[in-house]
């Protein structure tokens, strides 16, 4: 007799960048198995550009753009923010009830954007108490003071205690301990499972670094994630090349789809004049990164996971607004020898040139540290899913 269908619903609010949807897709792809169906609720405006494996589909809710940590406006539809959020909330609730999952995974925001997931969480608690409700958190959210203040104001501690079965932290406690940093109460910390970092699919070896014969330049891939705030990095890198035309670098630049069009056009023209390969978006960014000697990025969680999975040395230039997450991650990883980093406040063409050349010199010790770094995230999550399914029988 075939196993019963096990439905998994995943929620990714996706108000900014690529990070949330890429992490959600990576998890979904690895939780697939016989009898498993996965449906993703997402506000990502570019979710349709990705290829989904059989057994995974998505429901698109109206996108919202983050103007600040508390202000959001609709991405495309011409309605006010309150109306857009009402539409999103109704779609989320209706999808959850119709799909009736046995596992519900919420990405990062305990109650969803502007509490839009709270009605669904309470519906599960009241009518489907057997459903496992999981909050997935990246290892670092923001600096401790800001996170504690936000969680208290939005009553997230209460929500985690009352509405969630488990909390999966996509990191390792010895690198960064949110229980201590964010003053997590015992009743909540007992629900927390540190999965480890989430590894990404590694392209076949033939996608690795290939340069022309007699070309001894170092291959650098510059990526700014979604790209919405990546212009200063792209601009500084190109000015660096303009100042150092004889630098032994062969560069590829991936701006991300959310770099404003006028900035993208300007960067594309300048890149072409300097012999830099430029693209705005890549469905298979891992294939481009696999060709690199050094990866220059802003250190978002997903880019870090991709870089470590590919075992690539990297230079991180972390943004410090609206959150300190990237700066903190760059610091703790640098302390472990897993990357080099250049503070945002120090970013200029000359300091960037020095940092890039330093990262090239430090490739070998970085590779050794990366080789010793174990990424267990997907393995741990698959194990928990197996436990949940056994409980069903």
From TrEMBL:
GO MF, one annotated term: hexosyltransferase activity
Protein's UniProt keywords contain Transport: no
Cross-referenced InterPro entries: Glyco_trans_28_C, Glyco_trans_28_RedA_prd
Gene3D superfamilies named among the record's database cross-references: Glycogen Phosphorylase B (3.40.50.2000)
Keywords: Transferase
Superkingdom assignment: Bacteria
Protein name: Glycosyltransferase
Naturally occurring in which organism (per UniProt): Oceanidesulfovibrio indonesiensis
